[in-house]
Structures are given as structure tokens and as C-alpha cells.
Design a protein that fits this description.
This protein is 40% helix and 17% strand. The two termini are 41 Å apart. Helix 2 runs antiparallel to helix 10. A hairpin with an 8-residue loop joins strand 13 and strand 14. The model has no long low-confidence stretch (mean pLDDT 97). It is built from 14 helices and 17 strands. A seven-stranded mixed sheet has the order 4-10-9-8-7-5-6, sandwiched between helices. It is of the alpha/beta class. It folds into two domains: 133 residues, Aspartate Aminotransferase, domain 1; 255 residues, Type I PLP-dependent aspartate aminotransferase-like (Major domain) (Aspartate Aminotransferase, domain 2, 3-Layer(aba) Sandwich), CATH 3.40.640.10. Bound molecules: 4'-deoxy-4'-aminopyridoxal-5'-phosphate (PMP). 4'-deoxy-4'-aminopyridoxal-5'-phosphate (PMP) binds next to helix 4.
Length: 408
Amino acid sequence: MKSRLDIKKIQKDFPQLDVLVNNKRLVYLDNAATTLKPNIVIETLTHYYQHQVANVHRGVHSLSEEGTRRFEETRQTIQNFIHAKFSHEIIYTKGTTDSLNLLASSFGEAFITKGDEIILSQMEHHSNIVPWQILCEKKGAILKVIPVDDQGNLKLDEFKKLLNTKTKMVSIVHTSNTLGTVNPVKEIIQLAHAVGAKVCLDAAQSIAHQTIDVIELDCDFLVFSAHKIYGPNGLGILYGKEELLNAMPPYQGGGAMISEVTFEKTTYNILPNKFEAGTPVIAEVIAFKAALDYVSQIGLEEIALYEHELLEYATSEIKKLKGIRIIGEAKEKSGVLSFVIEGIHPHDLGTLLDKQGIAIRTGHHCTQPLMKRFGIKAAARASFTFYNDKRDVDALITGIEKAREFLL
Ligand code: PMP
């Protein structure tokens, strides 16, 4: 099936695409790091700061009440977007990293004891490694790691061998930010549940590129960042099943998360407030609804279809270049293309592409263990989304050729 998206029309919604970088048209291929923002998100943010500033939850005045209504409306939009059962299962955090720290700390406090096992994979982002490591050190728990094969697939047979009744948590990336691999999460969840373990999906890279249904997947927790799906910075989501979130202790203390405070004892608020201490990022939450509505209007299925076509085109074009090694060639891939070029350091490539207005990412992509697995220190990464087009891919290819002429 061919995608039917009107890309020219979509591109007009993203003002930053008109910005010149080093006097060249911006070719933005760093979408896995963060996405550009559509006008509607920028306008909603501005409107809040120009007309609607008020704190939420605490006021009886009109602006505070209206702010609270819109703040909670976003929660329902997120609930619908990931198909959760209740809106109070949606917790606002600062980002994926914050969500994972909250989870490791609070879930760890409630459910992890000495000798318990936590399974991660070799392709995790540092933010899905370090919080669990800190927990393991604190509790005397054990970290186990699912290996990755040469194409960039998880070795599921090895995963099955790691699972046992001591496994309490499997925290896995849905789509790898370095390899682009889309992991078979439904199967992983079923296998983990069979031994009584809970599963957290790091959806930082999948949320903008495929439909996610947490009930259908039956995942226990899901985390992502608003800024990777055309929303503002500083906002993340932790989804958790109600009964698990209820059983977990608060992560931070402060205003809004309490029911009653005395110096002798404090009682805590109900979900979701129990996990939302302090004044939140109100404008960002309100504007995030605009981002999700925008994506829903276009349709994630159409988006996925288009991005897949673009990835296939980019992959076949880049393979024509001499000395290219693609890192991550799994069958199920999202719009991420990581590569190294013989004799050229990725940072040099990135710098020369930047001079041509082309933004890619170079480095270890916060996945150092994965880099080690592939025997490299760094890679170049182009990541695509629905406002990119074949012109961007062609610019990248020409840019690489120019860089090669300069460097070799
Ligand atoms: N996990 C994955 C797979 C990611 O790609 C990222 C961001 N690169 C993160 C976690 C962390 O997200 P954030 O920096 O928004 O907290």
C-alpha cells in the first residue's frame, strides 16, 4: 500500500523547516533526538503565556479552573492515544528519563528485594539502564541483559533462558533509538508475564511512529517524552496499571501529592496526584494535547506507512555509497538509519554535513553498551519523520559524498 500523506501541506505546519542553517535550507534528520514543533503547538504555548497563566489545582478563580480543566483534558487525550483504561493511570513527569527514574525508585521500593532479577536488553538507552543499576546496587538485586544479534534483533531464545521466578521486571525499549529495531514487545510481555514479571516499555522512539494500545499489549508500564512527538520540552509520561501504581510509594514529596500533612504523619493523595509533587509544566501539558490531536488527525497508520517508504528509499540509496556499514538491519525497523563510513569519523561527517544545513546525530546515542556490541565507539544517525521527504534523503547522500571528497 502506498501512503497518501500530503507532505508539502504537512511541511507548511512546521515553521522551523523554513529556517536557514549556515545559509542553507535546513535538512532536519535528527528526529530521534527531538522533533520540530507544528504551529498549533507553538500557538497554544504562546496563548497560555499571553492569556491564561494561572496555577492548576489550587485556585477557585476562573483562570485556575479553566487551566485545571485543560490540564486534565490532556490527560484524557493521552489516555485515548495509548488506549489506557483510566486517565489516572497517566502520570505527568519531566520526560522518559524522569519516568524511568520514578519507576525504578518507586517500583523498586515496593517490589524489589535482595536476589531479585531485572532484565534489560543490550540495546537500551542509558536512561533505561542506569536507574535500574542504582536500584540493584541499593537492594542487592541482579541485572540481566538480553543480547542482540548482528542484524540488531533481540535474541529471544536467550531472553527465554534468562526468565525465571526471580525475575521481577523486564524493562525494554520498544523501538531502538540507535538501531531502529522495533522489538516484538507483545511476545516479550507474554513471556515475562508467564513467570510473574512486570514489563515496562520505553516508548520514547515508538510513540510518534506507530499505534500503541497498552491494554492490547498488556504492558504494565509505558514511558515516553512529549518532545519526541511534536510536543513541548520538559514533559514526559509514565503510564502504569492502576493496581501497580496504587501499590507503589510516592517518588517525591511536596505540594499536590498529599491528602493531609501533620508533623506526625502525612497521608498521600490518590492517583495521579500522588506522583505529581509541585507545580507542573502547565503550558506544556496543555500544548501537548494540540500535538497529539495533530498527530491523530493525520493518523499514525498513514504516518508509519510513509516513514517506512522513506526509510526504504534512504537505505537503498545509502547502500550505494562506498565503504558504508549500516548499524541495525533488523526486519522490523522504524525510521532510524545509523551508519559508519570507513576511514571517516562520524563527528567529522556530522560537522561537514552541518555546513551544508544537514542536521544528523553523531556519537554513541546514549547506548554505549550497544556500541561496544557492534565494535564501534560512535556512529552517524539520520532519523526520519513525516515532514521529511526524498529531497532530504538526496541532500544527505550528496552531502556525504561531498564530505568524503573533502576528507579522503
Ligand atoms: N529512551 C530512548 C529509546 C530514547 O531515544 C531517549 C531519548 N533519546 C530516551 C529514552 C530519553 O528520553 P528523554 O531524554 O526525553 O528523557
